[in-house]
Design brief:
The complex is a heteropentamer of chains A (476), B (198), C (641), D (500) and E (101). With 500 residues, chain D is mainly alpha-helical. Chain D is built from 20 helices and two strands. Chain E is built from three helices and no strands. In chain E, helix 1 runs antiparallel to helix 2 and helix 2 runs antiparallel to helix 3. Chains B and E meet through helix 1, helix 2, helix 3, helix 4 and helix 5 of B and helix 1, helix 2 and helix 3 of E.
């Protein structure tokens, strides 16, 4: 049982305990602890890739798919921590606990990804959520931060309750919490029986809760407030790692235990997806706050992912995977840039703070330009290909009207991305923006990837096809 | 009508009553006390369901620790007793409405009958002894060992977060910052003033 | 002959290009280049004309240079050498040469001396392009280039407000005609798949039967084409209702008025119809239309000349009226007569204009005849030249104008076109009146010039200005007599014009010969009217023995050019402005841009602003939304399953 | 055939140089201008080489470069040219060369990136004209927005923010609908290659919807009435060179797209709707001419005139539908007319925008009333401008005439009314073009507040080059016809065969 | 035996009561936290009941973990509450609306 196959999680768990202890003794040398954590993550990611698991704990899945996703998460965390360290350091708010809590949350995401039973899933989600509650409230001096934290806490706990209620229903009507057994059970249930209805109810509860975690409309309501209230470094974490994890949870839940219910959840997901796209686009239109705007943009992006997933086809699955990875890339870049730009020693708050950035910091201006255009889905950037794949999947499944609606929303959403570009490039107001570095190689690579992968989209396409193929291997 | 049913009816109606009190009472202390009552009542009902260990845990952990924590916070924060304001009344019908809709949706469904459910493939049920605690302990440390470990992580996280969130240096404490002492330059301290010649 | 013709044609173009390159050289270069190039053309056209007649050549159509030859259409530079084009080119180049020579002195004080010659040379080239064209595309190109040079020359004085509005108007009105011409051209291309005159003449009959729908009516394709082409001619030759640009074009330098707006360009329409006479002969109804247009123009625009006071404008209206005669002749299928009048008119009208120019220069750019008087003594040469030109214009027996004009009137009457005949007859009277009006007012009475200049006989004007007057007098007075008989016998344009037999029959049965015609004319009503006109004007303008008050209403109508004046000056611009503003402000900006486009974005924006309020920030609202959504999903599922 | 990938070079050379210029702000003004000049010149030379090596007797696609781009989706990196593409590529490289020459004397803040964006734009335009994979086409088509957006937004006029956003969203709106059609077609065809779409059999309803989507997409780009309102705003705010490239090349993308997509794919629907579409074109020609007449801003006037001239292009294209059964020759005339009109308008509008830019330099106003009596001070310039205005009003002997003439001929082949209405443009275009000349160039400007002086040598070179080409195309459009003939013919025959 | 539905209905009522508690409450965040506790209680009820019905221990194991997690969660929640109180000097729900729009 204690084989080394769940090494990344174990490494991180044990390592983080060590860091907590070590940190107590070398309180002043924060950089050392930080390096230690980064080293841990690198080690874990190394093992995540190299160790090909041979067999599995019944409620914990190991596969190429999960290892790859974990690897991506770890790399993401590495980058995020890199930004975070410098950002917090600059804001004089650096505590090594921030990283330890983050790492625990990271473990939570990994558990979610590997979870093969509802209990494990619940624990993973909670580990992540608890970490996020703390991280959001981390900026103790800020009213907004604590307000956001308490909001997220109450709503998050409520959604946990809903999740649990759903789980209990599923457990009650199938007699198991193991994905595989649930799947078997559901496939043998009569479509018209009461039991079936109960399972559907349970599934809806779970869906609602997961959509909440995902930030999909109409369960998105917390997203903008929380994005705005928390530190940028928390926002960047919040908008990337949990999304990927929840996405994988979605995939695994819907494509393993609930696959026979696809005819029901596909409609729900499509509805939720469209609602997210519409709400994300429309609400974002008049936002003044940068993080808030990006939050709505995230909602709309999540909508694309869910929509593609709701198609229950190979190309839909492919598209959603593609979109998720691209979205994470883009979010990493956009928030990453914001961590580097500060105004009056605070993080960038309003879009108008960015006015004239192109004159004072052309490097960052170009980065934002590319990132925003990619988010808007303008070719040849990678964001375009992501949207293209989703729309193509929609059309291949004859959802023409929906696809028209979706592209119209894309046009609307393009407006607010353009507004940012407009502020940066076309306005010459004086600003007090300062940056603590002239450039950042990681950030540059990240942004160049948005362009490069857009010109060579087949790289990304091959990766996702591979991921999808190994995912399908497992689920069927 | 057997004794079990009577117990159930009494305790469950009490439970509902205390629950309503929890959410409606204007004084948070009262709410907390009612919540404690609810936990007690639940523990009894859980006993009826044969979950002895959990009912003990509920009382020990919840009433003993969590609810005390709640009360502690109530005291610490020195919160005024809230008045029932107009908004409360305004939203009450909505609350009742949702309450009813939700209940109709689910309760009707439950009433419909929960019997005759056909479970095809239930995995093995690990019952090794009569004792609920022993059984629980067994599965916890065999089948659910990984989850158990994770629960440990969660608790660690809880501790860590609670500390990091609430801990603050007392601003009244006077202490020296050695780094700043070392960093001092002469010109920061010494200011040469050219005086007027007398 | 071909090579010579090419040189003839190219010479003014080369002149233009050379002039373009010597922008900053002295005036001498400009004078030399421009005049010599035209001189070459002139001499060559006379020479080729001589060659043509002496060697009894037949008309030939030569494609010289192909620019584009695709199966769809071909654009080539071609020459149609026959008596018609050669005679026309002789007229054009001779008038052009004289005007060039005249201009040397007329324009000597102008800063843009060189530019003037660039334009005139270019104009001559364009005109020759029309004259020698053997296909419609080349015709159209020449046609437009002529319009362009006219545009540039009218607006030659770029600082003069009236001039630049006049050239704008002239170009636009010409464009109206061009629409007709272009449509005709396109139809030709569609129907015949060629634009070559000869090819079209050959297959005209087979195509004639083709019908085409225009606004629901069926027309013969050929008639439609001819009609459209004539609309082009109407604009260029200033026929009602597209005549109103011509008086305004008098804002240009006077030599230009002589060259372009009297002698050459305005006759391009006449020339074109004559050139296409084989086609026009086959049409039904179009010729009648032409006839009526012509006679209406001749009569009514002559009347307008009566009430004008600007010397150049009077002559301009006279030009329109005379062009009406030519058009009427075309309409009566008397193509050679039309050409004849074209030729004579070119000379005497050019002469009139040059005289006017001379007067204007002498009077320091005073053009109002009420303020000019008594120049007979001061400008004897101009006086004489003007006298001869006027006699020719009014058709005094034996002059060129007499032969050409009387023949047209008599022939129109002879062939039984009563109403046009009457209008043409009456217009003799008006012609006489306005001509005498200028003549008497300008040359008689008390001299209007300051005393110092009055007695200065020696310098009437520069010699360069007077020489052309001398030279032009000859053809203006005597040319008619010389070519009348051969022309009427159909010898002159034998091969080029259709329906010569009509003219010939008229000649044989009515005219007999020129002398007979001269004698006979004294007995006709024409002469009576002319004579009455002369008597009347002698007493009215010279003796001032009586005064006629024309009713104010009629006077107003005539002065306003039957409303065309207001139409062109106020209504059309105002309508266009109003329509434009309406379309721009009300439809484009208000309806489409603000109404549809910006409103959409505004609606979305305000929608966003409104729905944004749903995000209240209160936890209970948030939880309410989440729970409601959950319940909604549950209800939907409950209903669905 | 050449043994090197000439199209890829044409596409990527300017893009790469442009990116370098954009990213590195270290280049000085003069060196960046020199680099741009050299690059555009090189591209121009290469495109001439392309033109020379192009075999115009063969209707096949030439210089094909086809690589798998995204294998799973059958998306190809598929560059090729036919006659239509070659002509437009020539136009693009020529206009860009002129812009490089013109811009060499202009003074802009951050000039190296300014020029860089133009180079990127050039590459993308060439890519658009040579892409034969629909997604590749779409990518180039959409990417065009980015550099232009920045050019107008950064170096534009007062109201540039509004104009750029409007321009961007407007065109984006059109193109996303088009994208849906492309995806739909690709789903049916199983491939994204444009030529594979031609052989699809679509139901009538499908065709109508696809046609409408394409019509909106390309109609906005070209732009057609009533979706033209972005153009005047964009033009007014754009810097001179921006206006030039926008008017002379970018609008052509719409027409090109119509010929590539609309004509062959949605033939039946096109025939059904042709009268409405021709009506729209006629509205563009007449209505917009009136609107142009009312303008007080020189650039707006020319912008509206562009819309009106593009009306001829769309009309020529849509006439093909109308004439397909009736009169194939006239259809061919119409399509060639449309193509020639595109090229010619590219030259003439470029010239006019250059002219306005030169005047703006002195008067700092684009309003007609602020520019007065220019001819007194700038005779050569005025002469050239009058020439271009005349060309704009379709004077025979200039290129402006040929296209209009062919389209009107074709229209007459369809119905007299169409021909007549189209021909009215002769009057209307003259009325607004000459009004501009009359009010701006002529008149007596005693005071001369503006301090006009004759334009600089590089500007003279630019304008004279345009004069030469306008005249050459007007007098001897043979080479263009030869280039286009086979391709146009092929399109029409393939449509006819497809119907039969 | 008491029918299983009774328990389920009871738990559902408590669940709904707790949800109603979240949005009826206008004043005090603490009560919200207590409502949440009530919610988890009802869910636990469900799990135990169903586990009992199925004769399966999984339900109870689940409840065990839920109790653990909720304990940790309440700790964090209360900590956040304290931070909030320090910042705002109030834990009124109505004061929690700086983030909106």
């Amino acid at each position: 049982m204690f084989d080394l196959f769940y090494i990344p999680e174990i490494i991180l768990s044990i390592g983080i305990l060590l860091v907590i202890v070590i940190d107590l003794y070398i309180e002043k040398q924060k950089y050392f602890s930080y390096l230690l954590i980064q080293f841990l993550i690198i080690l874990a990611s190394f093992y995540a890739l190299t160790e090909v698991p041979t067999h599995a704990y019944s409620s914990y899945e190991f596969s190429k798919f999960t290892s790859l996703i974990k690897f991506l998460l770890l790399v993401g965390a590495l980058i995020i921590f890199h930004y975070t360290y410098r950002h917090l350091n600059y804001l004089n708010n650096l505590k090594i606990e921030y990283f330890t809590i983050s790492v625990l949350g990271l473990i939570g995401t990994m558990i979610m990804i590997s979870a093969y039973s509802l209990l494990m899933l619940y624990l993973g989600i909670e580990l992540l959520s608890l970490a996020l509650y703390a991280l959001i409230g981390f900026n103790k001096a800020s009213k907004l931060s604590s307000e956001a934290a308490i909001k997220y806490y109450i709503l998050g706990a409520m959604s946990s309750g809903i999740l649990l209620f759903g789980i209990s229903l599923i457990y009650g009507f199938t007699g198991s919490i193991d994905y595989f057994e649930i799947a078997e059970q559901i496939s043998s249930v009569n479509n018209n029986s009461v039991q079936f209805l109960g399972i559907i109810f349970g599934m809806i509860f779970i869906t609602a809760s997961l959509c909440f975690k995902f930030g999909a409309a109409p369960f998105h309501i917390w997203v903008p407030d929380i994005y705005q209230g928390s530190l940028v470094s928390t926002t960047i974490l919040l908008s990337t790692l949990p999304k990927v994890a929840v996405f994988v949870v979605f995939l695994k839940l819907y494509f393993i235990p609930f696959i026979t219910l696809a005819f029901i959840w596909s409609d729900i997901l499509i509805f939720i997806g469209i609602a997210s796209i519409v709400i994300g686009s429309i609400f974002a239109l008049t936002q003044e706050n940068m993080k808030r705007l990006l939050a709505y943009s995230a909602i709309s992006n999540i909508g694309f992912i869910i929509l593609a997933m709701g198609l229950v086809t190979d190309d839909g699955l492919n598209a959603s995977l593609y979109y998720t990875i691209v979205y994470s890339f883009t979010a990493l870049a956009s928030f990453g840039i914001i961590t580097h730009i500060t105004s009056n020693s605070h993080g960038i708050e309003d879009i108008s703070d960015l006015a004239g950035l192109s004159k004072t910091h052309p490097y960052f201006a170009i980065l934002i330009l590319i990132t925003m255009l990619s988010s808007a889905g303008i070719p040849p950037l990678i964001g375009f290909h992501a949207k293209l794949m989703v729309i193509q999947a929609l059309i291949n499944n004859s959802y023409i009207i929906l696809s028209v609606l979706v592209v119209l929303m894309t046009v609307i959403s393009a407006y607010y991305y353009l507004r940012i570009i407009k502020t940066i490039y076309f306005e010459n107001r004086e600003n007090l923006i300062s940056t603590y570095t002239r450039n950042n190689i990681l950030l540059s690579i990240n942004v160049i990837l948005l362009l490069g992968l857009g010109v060579f989209p087949f790289i990304m396409f091959d990766i996702t096809s591979y991921l999808a193929s190994i995912l399908v291997d497992i689920s069927i | 009508m057997n004794i079990e049913l009577i117990t159930f009816i009494i305790f469950s109606s009490l439970l509902i009553f205390t629950s309503i009190k929890v959410i409606t009472s204007s004084n948070p202390v009262l709410s907390a006390i009612n919540l404690v009552f609810s936990f007690f009542l639940s523990a009894v009902l859980w006993l009826l369901l044969g979950a002895e260990f959990l009912s003990i845990i509920l009382i020990l952990v919840y009433v003993g620790a969590v609810m005390v924590l709640f009360l502690f916070v109530v005291m610490m924060l020195d919160i005024n007793i809230a008045k029932k304001n107009a908004a409360y009344i305004k939203y009450l019908p909505l609350g009742i409405g949702i309450f009813i809709v939700f209940n109709i949706l689910i309760i009707l469904f439950f009433i419909n009958t929960f019997e005759n459910i056909n479970y095809n493939a239930i995995s093995s049920i690990n019952i090794i002894s009569e004792s609920n605690t022993e059984n629980l302990g067994f599965v916890l440390f065999t089948d659910y060992i990984l989850e158990f470990e994770i629960a440990g992580l969660i608790l660690l996280l809880g501790i860590l977060s609670a500390i990091i969130l609430t801990y603050r240096k007392n601003p009244n404490n006077k202490y020296q910052d050695p780094a700043r002492q070392i960093d001092v330059r002469k010109k920061d301290r010494l200011k040469v003033i050219k005086g007027l010649k007398e | 002959m071909t090579a010579l013709t090419i040189i003839l044609l190219i010479s003014p173009l080369i002149g233009t290009l050379l002039l373009l390159t010597c922008q900053n050289r002295s005036k001498k270069y400009s004078i030399l280049i421009s005049n010599i190039s035209i001189l070459i053309s002139f001499l060559l056209s006379l020479f080729i004309l001589y060659l043509y007649y002496s060697s009894n050549s037949v008309p030939q159509s030569i494609n010289v240079l192909t620019f584009a030859d695709i199966k769809l259409f071909s654009l080539y530079f071609g020459l149609y050498i026959d008596s018609l084009s050669l005679v026309m080119s002789s007229v054009v180049t001779s008038v052009s040469l004289l005007v060039h020579y005249y201009s040397i002195s007329y324009m000597k004080h102008d800063r843009s001396f060189n530019r003037f010659f660039i334009y005139t040379n270019f104009f001559t080239f364009s005109m020759l392009l029309i004259v020698f064209s053997n296909n419609f595309l080349q015709l159209f190109i020449g046609w437009e280039l002529v319009g362009l040079s006219s545009y540039l020359l009218i607006g030659f004085w770029i600082k003069k407000e009236s001039a630049i509005s006049a050239n704008y108007k002239a170009f636009l009105v010409n464009r109206v005609g061009d629409v007709g011409l272009l449509l005709g051209l396109c139809l030709i291309l569609l129907s015949y798949s060629t634009t070559d005159y000869n090819q079209i003449f050959e297959i005209k009959n087979s195509i004639d039967m083709d019908r085409m729908d225009i606004f629901g009516y069926s027309f013969s394709a050929l008639s439609a084409i001819c009609m459209l082409l004539f609309i082009g001619a109407m604009a260029k030759s200033a026929q009602v209702p597209l005549q109103f640009w011509l008086p305004d074009s008098m804002e240009g330098p006077t030599p230009i008025s002589a060259l372009i707006h009297a002698a050459t360009m305005v006759t391009a329409g006449i020339y074109m119809v004559a050139r296409l006479s084989p086609l026009y002969e086959l049409t039904d109804g179009v010729l009648i239309f032409i006839l009526y247009i012509g006679s209406i123009t001749a009569f009514f625009l002559g009347l307008v000349a009566l009430v004008q006071n600007d010397i150049k404008r009077i002559i301009a209206y006279s030009t329109i009226s005379q062009l009406g005669y030519m058009t009427a002749a075309l309409g009566a299928s008397l193509y050679s007569l039309a050409m004849f009048h074209l030729i004579t008119h070119a000379f005497f009208k050019a002469l009139l204009f040059l005289c006017a120019g001379s007067i204007i220069i002498k009077c320091h750019h005073e053009q109002d005849i009420r303020k000019i008087a008594g120049l007979r003594k001061v400008m004897p040469i101009t006086y004489l030249a003007f006298l001869y030109a006027s006699l020719s214009l009014i058709g005094f027996p034996l002059t060129s104008g007499f032969y050409s004009k009387e023949s047209i009137i008599d022939a129109v009457g002879y062939f039984g076109h009563t109403i046009p005949y009457l209008m043409l007859l009456l217009s003799i009277f008006t012609t006489t009146l306005y001509t005498s009006k200028i003549f008497f007012k300008v040359f008689f009475g008390k001299c209007s010039l300051p005393k110092s200049e009055e007695n200065n006989f020696k310098i009437e004007n520069d010699r360069q200005m007077l020489l052309p007057l001398f030279v032009l007098t000859a053809p203006a007075v005597f040319l008619g007599l010389f070519i009348y008989d051969p022309l009427m016998m159909g010898l002159l344009f034998q091969d080029s014009l259709a329906a010569n037999e009509l003219t010939i029959s008229f000649y044989n049965n009515y005219v007999i010969n020129s002398l007979n015609f001269f004698l006979h004319s004294f007995m006709t009503i024409n002469f009576l009217i002319l004579f009455a006109g002369l008597i009347f004007s002698y007493f009215y303008f010279y003796k001032r023995s009586f005064d006629i008050s024309i009713p104010r209403f009629i006077r107003a109508v005539i002065e306003k050019e039957y409303g065309f004046d207001s139409l062109s000056r106020y209504f059309i611009p105002r309508i266009q402005n109003n329509i434009s503003r309406f379309l721009w402000k009300d439809i484009d900006i208000s309806t489409i841009d603000n109404g549809l486009i910006n409103n959409t974005s505004n609606i979305i924006n305000s929608l966003s602003n409104k729905v944004k309020k749903l995000q209240t920030g209160y936890i209970y609202h948030y939880s309410l939304i989440i729970i409601s959504a959950l319940i909604l999903l549950l209800i939907i599922m409950r209903i669905a399953h | 055939m050449l043994d090197y990938p000439i199209l890829s070079i044409l596409v990527w050379l300017p893009i790469i140089v442009g990116l370098m210029l954009v990213v590195s702000s270290d280049f000085g003004k003069s060196s960046s201008a020199l680099i741009t000049l050299l690059t555009t010149f090189l591209v121009f030379i290469i495109s001439i080489k392309l033109f020379q090596s192009y075999d115009h007797l063969s209707g096949e696609l030439q210089f094909v470069e086809k690589l798998v781009w995204i294998s799973g989706l059958n998306i190809f990196y598929y560059l090729a040219v036919d006659g239509i593409s070659v002509s437009l590529i020539l136009l693009t490289s020529f206009i860009n060369l002129l812009i490089a020459i013109f811009a060499s004397s202009e003074n802009y803040e951050n000039k190296s990136s300014y020029l860089g964006y133009f180079l990127i734009l050039e590459g993308l335009l060439i890519g658009t004209f040579s892409a034969f994979d629909s997604i590749l086409f779409y990518i180039f088509f959409e990417s065009l927005l980015i550099p232009l957006f920045l050019i107008i937004g950064i170096w534009g006029g007062e109201n540039r923010k509004y104009a750029t956003i409007k321009f961007f969203l407007y065109t984006l709106f059109g193109s996303v609908l088009m994208l849906i059609s492309i995806l739909y077609l690709a789903n049916l065809a199983g491939s994204f290659a444009i030529r594979d779409f031609y052989s699809l059999t679509l139901s009538f309803e499908e065709e109508v919807l696809i046609l409408l989507a394409f019509l909106i997409g390309f109609g906005i780009k070209i732009p057609m009435w009533p979706v033209h309102t972005w153009l005047p705003d964009a033009h007014v705010e754009a810097p001179t060179s921006g206006s030039v490239i926008l008017a002379s090349v970018l609008l052509k993308v719409g027409g090109y797209g119509m010929i590539r997509f609309l004509l062959p794919i949605t033939t039946e629907a096109g025939i059904y709707l042709s009268e409405y579409m021709i009506f729209l074109s006629l509205v563009a020609i007449i209505y917009i001419s009136f609107v142009a007449f009312a303008q007080e801003d020189m650039k707006k006037l020319i912008a509206y005139s562009s819309v009106a001239h593009m009306g001829f292009v769309t009309m020529g294209i849509f006439l093909v539908f109308n004439l397909l059964g009736k009169n194939p020759t006239a259809a061919e005339i119409g399509l060639e007319g449309a193509m020639i009109q595109m090229i010619s308008h590219g030259l003439i509008s470029a010239a006019l925008f250059f002219c306005i830019g030169i005047m703006y330099r002195y008067s700092h106003s684009r309003l007609i009333k602020d520019n007065y009596g220019v001819a007194q001070f700038m005779p050569i310039f005025s002469f050239l401008m009058i020439f271009f205005l005349m060309a704009n009003s379709g004077l025979p002997g200039t290129s402006g005439f040929v296209g209009e003439f062919l389209v009107i001929t074709s229209a007459l082949g369809s119905s007299f009314l169409f021909g007549l209405l189209a021909a009215l443009s002769l009057i209307l275009s003259a009325s607004y073009s000459l009004k501009l000349g009359k009010n701006v160039l002529f008149g007596d400007n005693q005071k001369n507040h503006q301090g006009y002086i004759e334009c600089m040598n590089n500007e003279k070179i630019v304008l004279s080059a345009l004069v030469i080409f306008v005249l050459y195309l007007g007098i001897s459009p043979d080479f263009l016809f030869n280039l286009l003939d086979k391709s146009v013919n092929d399109i029409i025959t393939s449509i006819s065969i497809g119907r039969a | 035996m008491i029918p299983i539905s009774y328990y389920l209905i009871l738990s559902t009522i408590i669940f709904t009561l707790s949800i109603a508690g979240i949005f009826i409450n206008r004043k005090n965040i603490l009560v919200l936290l207590m409502s949440l506790e009530l919610m988890f209680l009802s869910v636990n009820f469900n799990l135990i009941t169903l586990g009992n019905y199925l004769g399966d221990l999984t339900g109870q194991v689940f409840v065990f973990f839920v109790l653990t997690v909720v304990a940790a969660e309440s700790a964090i929640g209360l900590a956040l509450l304290i931070v909030l109180f320090r910042n705002k000097k109030s834990i009124d729900v109505d004061d929690l609306s700086e983030l909106k729009g």
